[in-house]
Amino acid sequence: MSPSKIRFSELVGEQTRAEIFATVLTAGPISRTQLAQRLGLVPSSVTRMLPPLLEHGYLREADATVPQGRGRPQKMLHVNPDKHIVVGMKIGPAQVSGVVTDMAANVLARDEEPIADCTPRTALSAAAALTGRLLSKAPEAADRVLGLGVGVSGHVDSAAGVCRYSALLDWNKVDVAGPLQEATGLPVVVNNDVNTLVVAERWFGEGRDVDSFAVVTVGPGIGCGLLLNGSLFSGATGLAGELGHVPLDPSGPMCSCGRRGCLEALAGDRAVLRHLQDGGFACASIGEAITLARSGTDAARNVALAAFAEAGTALGRGLAGMCNLLNLQKIILAGEGAVAHDLFGPALTQALEAHAFSTAARDCRVHVDPVQHDLWARGAACLVIRDTVGATLS
Description:
Largest sheet: 5 strands, mixed
Strand order of the largest sheet: 6-5-4-7-11
Mean pLDDT: 88
Oligomer: single chain
Low-confidence stretches: 1-5, 390-394
Helix content: 40-55%
Structural class: alpha/beta
Radius of gyration: 23 Å
Shape: globular
Number of strands: 16
Protein backbone atom coordinates (compact mmCIF):
# COMPACT_ATOMS: atom_id res chain seq x y z
CA MET A 1 0.00 0.00 0.00
CA SER A 2 1.39 3.38 -0.99
CA PRO A 3 1.92 6.06 1.68
CA SER A 4 -0.81 8.23 0.12
CA LYS A 5 -3.38 5.42 0.41
CA ILE A 6 -2.62 4.25 3.93
CA ARG A 7 -5.71 4.24 6.16
CA PHE A 8 -5.71 6.55 9.14
CA SER A 9 -6.95 3.72 11.38
CA GLU A 10 -3.74 1.82 10.57
CA LEU A 11 -1.66 4.75 11.79
CA VAL A 12 -3.47 4.99 15.10
CA GLY A 13 -3.79 1.30 15.84
CA GLU A 14 -2.09 1.82 19.19
CA GLN A 15 -4.10 3.65 21.84
CA THR A 16 -1.13 5.80 22.84
CA ARG A 17 -0.73 7.12 19.31
CA ALA A 18 -4.44 7.89 19.20
CA GLU A 19 -4.17 9.84 22.44
CA ILE A 20 -1.20 11.76 21.05
CA PHE A 21 -3.19 12.83 18.02
CA ALA A 22 -6.21 13.85 20.11
CA THR A 23 -4.06 15.88 22.49
CA VAL A 24 -2.34 17.75 19.68
CA LEU A 25 -5.77 18.41 18.15
CA THR A 26 -7.25 19.85 21.34
CA ALA A 27 -4.18 21.46 22.94
CA GLY A 28 -1.90 22.30 20.02
CA PRO A 29 0.36 23.89 19.03
CA ILE A 30 2.28 21.88 21.58
CA SER A 31 5.89 20.78 21.98
CA ARG A 32 6.95 17.16 22.33
CA THR A 33 7.96 17.83 25.92
CA GLN A 34 4.60 19.39 26.77
CA LEU A 35 2.83 16.53 25.00
CA ALA A 36 4.67 13.94 27.07
CA GLN A 37 3.88 15.84 30.26
CA ARG A 38 0.15 16.11 29.47
CA LEU A 39 -0.11 12.40 28.70
CA GLY A 40 2.11 11.24 31.55
CA LEU A 41 4.55 9.60 29.13
CA VAL A 42 8.30 9.54 28.93
CA PRO A 43 9.57 11.67 26.01
CA SER A 44 10.98 8.59 24.26
CA SER A 45 7.48 7.11 23.94
CA VAL A 46 6.23 10.26 22.23
CA THR A 47 9.26 10.25 19.92
CA ARG A 48 8.60 6.62 18.98
CA MET A 49 4.90 7.19 18.23
CA LEU A 50 5.14 10.43 16.25
CA PRO A 51 6.92 9.48 12.99
CA PRO A 52 3.97 7.77 11.18
CA LEU A 53 1.64 10.64 12.01
CA LEU A 54 4.21 13.14 10.74
CA GLU A 55 5.28 11.16 7.68
CA HIS A 56 1.72 10.70 6.43
CA GLY A 57 0.75 14.31 7.03
CA TYR A 58 -1.71 14.04 9.92
CA LEU A 59 0.51 16.12 12.17
CA ARG A 60 2.96 18.87 11.30
CA GLU A 61 5.89 20.32 13.15
CA ALA A 62 6.39 24.04 12.76
CA ASP A 63 9.74 25.26 11.45
CA ALA A 64 9.75 28.14 13.90
CA THR A 65 11.11 27.33 17.35
CA VAL A 66 9.72 28.47 20.66
CA PRO A 67 11.89 28.82 23.77
CA GLN A 68 11.08 26.37 26.57
CA GLY A 69 12.41 27.99 29.74
CA ARG A 70 16.19 27.65 29.89
CA GLY A 71 16.28 24.48 27.81
CA ARG A 72 16.72 23.99 24.11
CA PRO A 73 14.14 25.56 21.78
CA GLN A 74 11.54 23.04 20.61
CA LYS A 75 9.40 22.82 17.51
CA MET A 76 5.63 22.92 18.00
CA LEU A 77 3.30 20.15 16.83
CA HIS A 78 -0.10 20.88 15.33
CA VAL A 79 -2.75 19.01 13.37
CA ASN A 80 -2.70 19.28 9.59
CA PRO A 81 -6.24 20.60 9.03
CA ASP A 82 -6.18 19.87 5.30
CA LYS A 83 -5.54 16.13 5.52
CA HIS A 84 -9.26 15.25 5.55
CA ILE A 85 -12.68 16.85 5.64
CA VAL A 86 -15.56 15.66 7.82
CA VAL A 87 -19.34 16.06 7.61
CA GLY A 88 -21.32 16.72 10.80
CA MET A 89 -25.09 16.74 11.03
CA LYS A 90 -27.94 17.26 13.51
CA ILE A 91 -31.34 15.73 12.80
CA GLY A 92 -34.12 17.67 14.51
CA PRO A 93 -37.92 17.49 14.37
CA ALA A 94 -38.22 20.35 11.87
CA GLN A 95 -34.94 20.41 9.97
CA VAL A 96 -31.61 18.75 9.31
CA SER A 97 -28.58 21.02 9.65
CA GLY A 98 -25.00 20.21 8.71
CA VAL A 99 -21.45 21.41 8.28
CA VAL A 100 -18.24 20.35 6.58
CA THR A 101 -15.13 20.81 8.72
CA ASP A 102 -11.44 20.23 8.31
CA MET A 103 -9.46 17.99 10.67
CA ALA A 104 -9.15 20.85 13.17
CA ALA A 105 -12.97 21.14 13.26
CA ASN A 106 -12.96 24.50 11.45
CA VAL A 107 -16.24 24.95 9.58
CA LEU A 108 -15.71 25.12 5.81
CA ALA A 109 -19.35 25.01 4.67
CA ARG A 110 -22.79 24.94 6.28
CA ASP A 111 -26.32 24.26 5.10
CA GLU A 112 -29.71 23.08 6.33
CA GLU A 113 -32.74 21.25 4.99
CA PRO A 114 -36.27 21.85 6.34
CA ILE A 115 -38.32 18.64 6.59
CA ALA A 116 -42.10 18.29 6.31
CA ASP A 117 -42.11 15.59 8.97
CA CYS A 118 -39.55 13.77 11.07
CA THR A 119 -40.32 10.20 10.06
CA PRO A 120 -37.12 8.17 9.61
CA ARG A 121 -37.58 7.95 5.84
CA THR A 122 -38.01 11.71 5.44
CA ALA A 123 -35.26 12.70 7.87
CA LEU A 124 -32.63 10.25 6.62
CA SER A 125 -33.36 11.07 2.96
CA ALA A 126 -32.91 14.75 3.79
CA ALA A 127 -29.67 14.00 5.64
CA ALA A 128 -28.27 12.06 2.68
CA ALA A 129 -29.22 14.84 0.25
CA LEU A 130 -27.72 17.48 2.53
CA THR A 131 -24.49 15.49 2.78
CA GLY A 132 -24.15 15.50 -0.99
CA ARG A 133 -24.86 19.21 -1.17
CA LEU A 134 -22.30 20.01 1.52
CA LEU A 135 -19.60 17.90 -0.12
CA SER A 136 -20.21 19.62 -3.45
CA LYS A 137 -18.96 22.79 -1.78
CA ALA A 138 -15.65 21.18 -0.75
CA PRO A 139 -12.82 20.77 -3.28
CA GLU A 140 -11.70 17.20 -4.03
CA ALA A 141 -14.16 15.92 -1.43
CA ALA A 142 -14.23 12.35 -2.74
CA ASP A 143 -10.55 11.83 -1.96
CA ARG A 144 -10.52 13.66 1.37
CA VAL A 145 -13.75 12.94 3.24
CA LEU A 146 -13.20 10.99 6.45
CA GLY A 147 -16.79 10.25 7.42
CA LEU A 148 -20.21 11.51 8.47
CA GLY A 149 -21.19 12.23 12.08
CA VAL A 150 -24.87 12.41 13.02
CA GLY A 151 -26.53 13.61 16.21
CA VAL A 152 -30.14 12.63 17.05
CA SER A 153 -32.14 12.99 20.24
CA GLY A 154 -32.96 10.20 22.63
CA HIS A 155 -31.43 6.82 23.45
CA VAL A 156 -28.76 6.20 20.82
CA ASP A 157 -26.73 3.00 20.66
CA SER A 158 -23.62 4.47 19.07
CA ALA A 159 -21.89 1.12 18.59
CA ALA A 160 -24.83 -0.17 16.54
CA GLY A 161 -25.60 3.16 14.87
CA VAL A 162 -29.22 2.84 15.99
CA CYS A 163 -31.62 5.25 17.70
CA ARG A 164 -33.30 2.94 20.21
CA TYR A 165 -35.93 5.45 21.23
CA SER A 166 -36.56 9.16 20.77
CA ALA A 167 -39.70 10.68 22.27
CA LEU A 168 -39.00 14.00 20.54
CA LEU A 169 -38.72 12.42 17.06
CA ASP A 170 -41.13 9.54 17.79
CA TRP A 171 -38.48 7.06 16.66
CA ASN A 172 -38.25 3.49 17.88
CA LYS A 173 -35.38 1.17 16.88
CA VAL A 174 -34.37 3.24 13.86
CA ASP A 175 -31.19 2.24 12.02
CA VAL A 176 -29.50 5.56 11.30
CA ALA A 177 -26.00 4.53 10.26
CA GLY A 178 -26.96 1.77 7.82
CA PRO A 179 -29.21 3.73 5.44
CA LEU A 180 -26.94 6.79 5.53
CA GLN A 181 -23.83 4.76 4.84
CA GLU A 182 -25.58 3.08 1.91
CA ALA A 183 -26.84 6.39 0.53
CA THR A 184 -23.60 8.37 0.94
CA GLY A 185 -20.91 5.70 0.75
CA LEU A 186 -19.29 7.17 3.88
CA PRO A 187 -18.45 5.69 7.28
CA VAL A 188 -21.15 6.96 9.67
CA VAL A 189 -20.86 7.71 13.40
CA VAL A 190 -24.13 8.25 15.31
CA ASN A 191 -24.61 9.56 18.84
CA ASN A 192 -27.06 11.42 21.02
CA ASP A 193 -27.23 15.02 19.85
CA VAL A 194 -26.42 16.48 23.27
CA ASN A 195 -23.31 14.29 23.39
CA THR A 196 -22.17 16.07 20.23
CA LEU A 197 -22.43 19.33 22.16
CA VAL A 198 -20.37 17.85 24.98
CA VAL A 199 -17.59 17.03 22.52
CA ALA A 200 -17.79 20.49 20.95
CA GLU A 201 -17.76 22.26 24.32
CA ARG A 202 -14.83 20.13 25.48
CA TRP A 203 -12.71 20.83 22.41
CA PHE A 204 -13.35 24.52 21.81
CA GLY A 205 -16.05 25.75 24.19
CA GLU A 206 -16.89 26.22 27.84
CA GLY A 207 -15.73 22.73 28.84
CA ARG A 208 -12.04 23.21 28.11
CA ASP A 209 -11.14 24.18 31.65
CA VAL A 210 -12.90 21.39 33.59
CA ASP A 211 -12.84 17.58 33.58
CA SER A 212 -16.38 16.90 34.84
CA PHE A 213 -19.28 18.86 33.39
CA ALA A 214 -22.76 18.48 31.93
CA VAL A 215 -24.41 20.11 28.96
CA VAL A 216 -28.13 20.52 29.66
CA THR A 217 -30.32 21.61 26.77
CA VAL A 218 -33.55 23.49 27.34
CA GLY A 219 -36.31 23.69 24.76
CA PRO A 220 -38.97 21.29 23.44
CA GLY A 221 -37.16 18.64 25.50
CA ILE A 222 -34.65 18.63 28.34
CA GLY A 223 -31.47 16.92 27.17
CA CYS A 224 -28.24 16.16 28.97
CA GLY A 225 -24.75 15.00 28.05
CA LEU A 226 -21.96 14.21 30.50
CA LEU A 227 -18.19 14.45 30.52
CA LEU A 228 -16.85 12.73 33.64
CA ASN A 229 -13.16 12.73 34.56
CA GLY A 230 -12.26 13.85 31.04
CA SER A 231 -14.26 11.24 29.10
CA LEU A 232 -17.65 11.33 27.43
CA PHE A 233 -19.95 9.17 29.57
CA SER A 234 -22.73 7.35 27.70
CA GLY A 235 -23.58 4.56 30.13
CA ALA A 236 -23.88 0.85 29.44
CA THR A 237 -25.97 1.18 26.27
CA GLY A 238 -25.85 4.89 25.43
CA LEU A 239 -28.74 5.83 27.72
CA ALA A 240 -26.87 8.01 30.22
CA GLY A 241 -27.96 11.62 30.54
CA GLU A 242 -31.75 11.29 30.19
CA LEU A 243 -32.25 14.05 32.74
CA GLY A 244 -35.47 15.13 31.08
CA HIS A 245 -37.12 11.85 32.02
CA VAL A 246 -36.18 11.84 35.69
CA PRO A 247 -39.56 11.53 37.49
CA LEU A 248 -40.22 14.50 39.79
CA ASP A 249 -44.00 14.46 40.27
CA PRO A 250 -45.95 11.17 39.89
CA SER A 251 -49.21 13.13 39.62
CA GLY A 252 -47.77 15.73 37.25
CA PRO A 253 -48.56 16.37 33.58
CA MET A 254 -48.07 13.74 30.90
CA CYS A 255 -44.64 13.67 29.29
CA SER A 256 -43.84 12.95 25.65
CA CYS A 257 -42.43 9.60 26.78
CA GLY A 258 -45.88 8.50 28.00
CA ARG A 259 -45.17 8.86 31.73
CA ARG A 260 -46.28 11.49 34.19
CA GLY A 261 -44.28 14.13 35.97
CA CYS A 262 -40.93 13.89 34.18
CA LEU A 263 -38.67 16.94 34.44
CA GLU A 264 -39.29 17.60 30.74
CA ALA A 265 -43.04 17.77 31.34
CA LEU A 266 -42.46 20.33 34.10
CA ALA A 267 -39.67 22.47 32.58
CA GLY A 268 -39.84 22.08 28.78
CA ASP A 269 -41.47 24.47 26.32
CA ARG A 270 -44.82 22.72 26.53
CA ALA A 271 -44.91 23.23 30.30
CA VAL A 272 -44.52 26.99 29.86
CA LEU A 273 -47.14 27.13 27.11
CA ARG A 274 -49.56 25.00 29.17
CA HIS A 275 -49.19 27.32 32.16
CA LEU A 276 -49.95 30.33 29.96
CA GLN A 277 -52.99 28.68 28.42
CA ASP A 278 -54.34 27.75 31.85
CA GLY A 279 -53.89 31.39 32.84
CA GLY A 280 -55.91 32.59 29.84
CA PHE A 281 -53.04 33.71 27.61
CA ALA A 282 -52.48 31.05 24.96
CA CYS A 283 -49.28 31.36 22.88
CA ALA A 284 -48.52 29.55 19.64
CA SER A 285 -44.79 29.26 20.31
CA ILE A 286 -42.22 29.63 23.04
CA GLY A 287 -40.97 32.74 21.24
CA GLU A 288 -44.35 34.39 21.77
CA ALA A 289 -44.21 33.38 25.43
CA ILE A 290 -40.79 35.01 25.82
CA THR A 291 -42.05 38.21 24.22
CA LEU A 292 -45.10 38.20 26.50
CA ALA A 293 -42.90 37.79 29.59
CA ARG A 294 -40.63 40.66 28.57
CA SER A 295 -43.04 43.19 27.09
CA GLY A 296 -46.66 42.07 27.50
CA THR A 297 -49.43 43.85 29.37
CA ASP A 298 -49.17 43.64 33.15
CA ALA A 299 -51.63 40.76 33.51
CA ALA A 300 -50.17 38.72 30.66
CA ARG A 301 -46.61 39.47 31.70
CA ASN A 302 -47.25 38.31 35.25
CA VAL A 303 -48.68 35.00 34.07
CA ALA A 304 -45.77 34.49 31.65
CA LEU A 305 -43.18 35.31 34.29
CA ALA A 306 -44.84 32.83 36.66
CA ALA A 307 -44.77 30.18 33.93
CA PHE A 308 -41.04 30.58 33.35
CA ALA A 309 -40.35 30.72 37.09
CA GLU A 310 -42.24 27.46 37.60
CA ALA A 311 -40.19 25.82 34.83
CA GLY A 312 -36.99 27.20 36.33
CA THR A 313 -37.84 25.81 39.75
CA ALA A 314 -38.39 22.33 38.31
CA LEU A 315 -35.17 22.53 36.31
CA GLY A 316 -33.24 23.70 39.39
CA ARG A 317 -34.49 20.71 41.37
CA GLY A 318 -33.37 18.39 38.56
CA LEU A 319 -29.93 20.00 38.39
CA ALA A 320 -29.59 19.75 42.18
CA GLY A 321 -30.16 16.01 41.96
CA MET A 322 -27.51 15.72 39.26
CA CYS A 323 -25.01 17.80 41.28
CA ASN A 324 -25.68 15.70 44.39
CA LEU A 325 -25.06 12.53 42.41
CA LEU A 326 -22.03 13.58 40.32
CA ASN A 327 -20.46 16.60 42.09
CA LEU A 328 -19.97 18.40 38.77
CA GLN A 329 -17.63 21.33 38.25
CA LYS A 330 -19.79 23.05 35.63
CA ILE A 331 -23.22 22.85 34.00
CA ILE A 332 -23.56 24.43 30.56
CA LEU A 333 -27.14 25.42 29.75
CA ALA A 334 -27.72 25.33 26.01
CA GLY A 335 -30.46 24.74 23.46
CA GLU A 336 -33.09 27.01 21.95
CA GLY A 337 -34.67 27.77 25.32
CA ALA A 338 -31.46 29.03 26.89
CA VAL A 339 -32.17 32.49 25.46
CA ALA A 340 -34.88 32.78 28.13
CA HIS A 341 -32.42 32.30 30.99
CA ASP A 342 -33.16 35.79 32.26
CA LEU A 343 -36.74 34.61 32.82
CA PHE A 344 -36.21 31.18 34.39
CA GLY A 345 -32.64 31.58 35.73
CA PRO A 346 -33.39 33.20 39.12
CA ALA A 347 -35.87 30.47 40.07
CA LEU A 348 -33.45 27.81 38.81
CA THR A 349 -30.62 29.17 40.98
CA GLN A 350 -32.84 29.38 44.04
CA ALA A 351 -34.06 25.79 43.64
CA LEU A 352 -30.57 24.49 42.90
CA GLU A 353 -29.17 26.04 46.05
CA ALA A 354 -32.16 24.93 48.12
CA HIS A 355 -31.96 21.27 47.11
CA ALA A 356 -28.22 20.72 46.63
CA PHE A 357 -26.47 18.76 49.36
CA SER A 358 -23.57 20.31 51.27
CA THR A 359 -21.33 22.21 48.81
CA ALA A 360 -22.67 20.59 45.60
CA ALA A 361 -24.19 23.86 44.31
CA ARG A 362 -21.15 25.98 45.24
CA ASP A 363 -18.81 23.45 43.61
CA CYS A 364 -20.65 23.78 40.28
CA ARG A 365 -20.67 26.83 38.04
CA VAL A 366 -23.71 27.30 35.79
CA HIS A 367 -22.88 28.85 32.42
CA VAL A 368 -25.37 29.80 29.70
CA ASP A 369 -24.39 29.09 26.10
CA PRO A 370 -27.38 29.46 23.72
CA VAL A 371 -25.63 27.59 20.92
CA GLN A 372 -26.56 27.80 17.26
CA HIS A 373 -27.18 24.80 15.00
CA ASP A 374 -23.59 24.99 13.77
CA LEU A 375 -22.24 23.87 17.12
CA TRP A 376 -24.44 20.77 17.22
CA ALA A 377 -23.31 19.76 13.74
CA ARG A 378 -19.71 20.74 14.40
CA GLY A 379 -19.75 18.51 17.46
CA ALA A 380 -21.04 15.63 15.32
CA ALA A 381 -18.08 16.17 13.00
CA CYS A 382 -15.79 16.07 16.03
CA LEU A 383 -17.26 12.67 16.91
CA VAL A 384 -15.98 11.32 13.61
CA ILE A 385 -12.50 12.68 14.30
CA ARG A 386 -12.59 11.43 17.89
CA ASP A 387 -13.81 7.94 16.99
CA THR A 388 -11.36 7.69 14.12
CA VAL A 389 -8.41 8.33 16.36
CA GLY A 390 -9.92 6.09 19.02
CA ALA A 391 -8.98 8.55 21.73
CA THR A 392 -10.72 9.83 24.83
CA LEU A 393 -11.48 13.52 25.32
CA SER A 394 -8.70 13.99 27.81
